Amino acid sequence: MAFIFVYLAEYGFLYRKLQINMWLGFKKFIKYFFLVFFILLVGFIAFNFDAAVYGFRQAKGQLKVIFNTRPVEEVMADKTFPDSLKKRIELIQEIKKFAVDSLGLNQSENYTTFYNQHGKPILWVMTACEPFELKAKKWHFPIVGTFTYKGHFEKELADKEIAELKKESYDTQLNEVSAWSTLGYLKDPILSSMLYYSDARLASLIIHELTHGTLFVKNNLEFNENLADFIGEYGAIRFLAYKYGKDSEELRKYERSKKFSDAYTKHLIRGTKKLDSLYHSFNKNLTISQKTSLKFDLIGKIITSTDTLMNGEIQSLRKSRRRTSQVNNAYFIGYLTYQSKQNQFEKEFRTKFNQDFKKYMAYLKKAYPSSIVF
């Protein structure tokens, strides 16, 4: 018996020693793990300082939005919130449900929260393009990939970067953003500015962003934006027909607007081909001043010739003329990015899938696996 107790005591001592050694080993592993992680993090920041600073600012802006959102249920129960705007929130929920049930887009937590902008823009997006080549500047971001635009939550930072790009001779554009998608990483909120959009614009916008949250191909911005625009516009037509009827004024008004918009887009894309030909015709003897003069002479002709598109959209044409001084290569690149390939999607949808959109959506999900990481 004594032998057994001695053995157990020694075994217990050895077992305890083993536990201590295992704990010390684990602590050592944790210590080295965090040391290696810290070294890698410092190295990443050192070699990607600008990207790290930009990422921090974007996270700060996004967190500001998140921490100041309210659940939709809370807003709808708020007696001080206008009933007219509550109806717009209800419409957004109806559009979202339609997009999931009738178009096959993914269910998500998007638009279940509300952010009050207090009448101020929330995000600015800039694009840049070579001065004598229709080649967009690209920005590279970890995880999500490469984009031909860059967003800022702070207008001052956007203005500063635009000024720097101009010094490098880039053509630039800076626009306010009406909505954006976090690709499923976060819950995209309803922005207060959305509540003042027309039904058609709201449907197109919501469905566009929900498309990004359903299917997003890394490093293929042109594909992503053209697809989202196609589905957004098609979805808006389907939704208006569903809600108001195929012969409703709401649907007819949107189709008239879309007809002009499509004609204007095709006109500008034809214009990009003329610009491309002009830039390729430049010889080495031309000065920067001469190239610039020829470039903006042609841009002016492209924009002012919109008079011949349609007779019933005088106000839109006047608005386009007022923008002539702002139109440059970056303006045209925007149309190439968002709308140059929509006809391909429409043709595929109508000829291969007999206009069965759910089948088409299922095909797209399978053919183009999304790069979204949940």
Shape: globular
Task: Give the ordered list of helices and strands.
Answer: HHEHHEEEEEHEEHHHHHHHH
Arithmetic mean pLDDT: 84
| Biggest sheet, spatial arrangement of strands | 1-2-8
Rg on CA atoms, Å: 27 Å
Oligomer: single chain
Output the structural class.
mainly alpha
Regions with pLDDT < 50 over 5+ consecutive residues?
A: 1-15, 31-47, 312-318
Characterize the largest beta sheet: strand count, sense, and whether it forms a barrel. 3 strands, mixed
End-to-end span in angstroms? 61 Å
Number of strands: 8
- The number of helices is 13
Secondary structure: helix percent: 55-70%
Question: Percent of residues in beta strands?
Answer: 5-15%
What is this structure's SSE topology?
Blueprint: H1 2-47, H2 49-67, E1 69-71, H3 72-77, H4 83-103, E2 113-115, E3 124-129, E4 139-141, E5 145-147, E6 150-152, H5 155-167, E7 171-176, E8 190-191, H6 199-214, H7 221-244, H8 249-281, H9 288-304, H10 314-322, H11 329-339, H12 342-352, H13 357-367
Helix pairs in contact: 1-2, 4-6, 6-7, 7-8, 7-11, 7-12, 8-9, 8-11
